[in-house]
């Protein structure tokens, strides 16, 4: 059961006791049926519950089947080893590298073979719908409804890569992972899902948004600079500017300013440089990276060097020398810990 595992920092349970496993699956995941089909049985379950999303790992040593009642949770399954299957009122599909997206609008039945391993991205419907409507500037009461068909494999390859990367980073940093980085990780994963799957708003996502007054870009940049240490909340920015998030992204692109996310990264890199340049006894490259919302520490080091012309450890070392502070970080801190 330990050969392949993810999210071990977030354990739920590990057991070979059938009744205990059934009780835990019902109490934690909300299943209303859990059947075991082999004499040999074992299960391991981990769950990283974030804000609007959750990332779950499950390993089955013994064939099993489970059922979920209707719910507000949307699920995307990713097989790590083996092929499972699922059935809803509308369709049935295998679960290989990924599944179609599975809404909670109907009962869900799953079958897992012995030795099966998977990651599952769980997303609450309401915040996903809220994000979509902010992107589109939609104020209607129309519901987000996904089609249970096969998603675009080219897009899903990137979704799978992002999901597994998120699992690796959550495992690596656990509770030390920056809340700011987690919030933006969630938003990125939810946006990926909206773009990868057909749904009731898909056609509108491909309509070219209207042009804006370019002062909107200045307003957005001012907001980002004032709220640099908060998650990049495009829903809130769309409300403040009274235009859709999609139109904002278009205007950033048309004016050669990249995207709101790229601008936020540049602002946070400058803030990181300021913090590293005025250290106290507890300042470290890692603590500054987390404070400024960088969850991927290797990427932080490379982005910082590209923007500032030197590694973050160099900025810190020079500042300590200038201020006469003793060196608290090893000279190669970011090359060994951040790259």
Automatic annotation (TrEMBL):
Residue ranges of every copy of the HTH araC/xylS-type domain listed in the record: 218-318
Protein's UniProt keywords contain Cell division: no
InterPro entries: AraC-bd_2, AraC_XylS_family_regulators, Homeodomain-like_sf, HTH_AraC, HTH_AraC-typ_CS
Keywords, alphabetical: DNA-binding, Transcription, Transcription regulation
Superkingdom: Bacteria
Gene3D superfamilies according to UniProt: Homeodomain-like
Stored Pfam families: AraC_binding_2, HTH_18
Keyword Lipid metabolism listed: no
Protein name: Helix-turn-helix domain-containing protein
Organism: Bradyrhizobium denitrificans
């Amino acid at each position: 059961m330990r050969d392949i595992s993810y999210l071990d920092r977030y354990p739920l349970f590990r057991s070979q006791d059938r009744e205990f496993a059934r009780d835990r699956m019902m109490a934690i995941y909300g299943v209303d049926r859990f059947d075991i089909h082999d004499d040999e049985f074992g299960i391991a379950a981990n769950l990283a519950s974030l804000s609007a999303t959750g990332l779950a790992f499950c390993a089955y040593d013994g064939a099993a089947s489970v059922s979920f009642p209707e719910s507000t949770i949307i699920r995307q399954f990713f097989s790590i080893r083996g092929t499972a299957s699922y059935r809803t009122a509308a369709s049935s599909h295998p679960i290989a590298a990924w599944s179609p997206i599975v809404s909670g609008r109907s009962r869900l039945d799953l079958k897992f073979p012995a030795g099966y391993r998977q990651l599952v991205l769980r997303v609450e419907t309401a915040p996903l719908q809220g994000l979509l409507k902010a992107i589109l500037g939609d104020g209607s009461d129309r519901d987000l409804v996904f089609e249970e068909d096969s998603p675009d494999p080219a897009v899903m390859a990137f979704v799978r890569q992002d999901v597994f990367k998120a699992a690796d980073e959550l495992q690596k940093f656990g509770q030390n992972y920056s809340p700011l980085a987690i919030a933006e990780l969630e938003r990125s994963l939810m946006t990926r899902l909206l773009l990868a799957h057909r749904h009731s708003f898909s056609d509108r996502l491909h309509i070219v948004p209207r042009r804006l007054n370019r002062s909107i870009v200045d307003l957005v940049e001012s907001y980002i600079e004032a709220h640099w240490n908060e998650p990049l909340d495009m829903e809130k920015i769309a409300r403040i500017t009274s235009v859709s998030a999609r139109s904002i992204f278009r205007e950033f692109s048309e004016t050669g300013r990249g995207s709101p996310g790229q601008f936020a990264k540049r602002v946070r890199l400058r803030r990181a440089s300021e913090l590293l340049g005025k250290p106290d006894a507890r300042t470290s490259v890692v603590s500054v990276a987390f404070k400024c919302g960088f969850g991927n520490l290797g990427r932080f080091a490379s982005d910082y060097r590209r923007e500032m012309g030197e590694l973050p450890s160099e900025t810190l070392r020079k500042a300590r020398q200038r201020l006469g502070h003793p060196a608290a970080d090893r000279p190669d801190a970011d090359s060994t810990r951040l790259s």
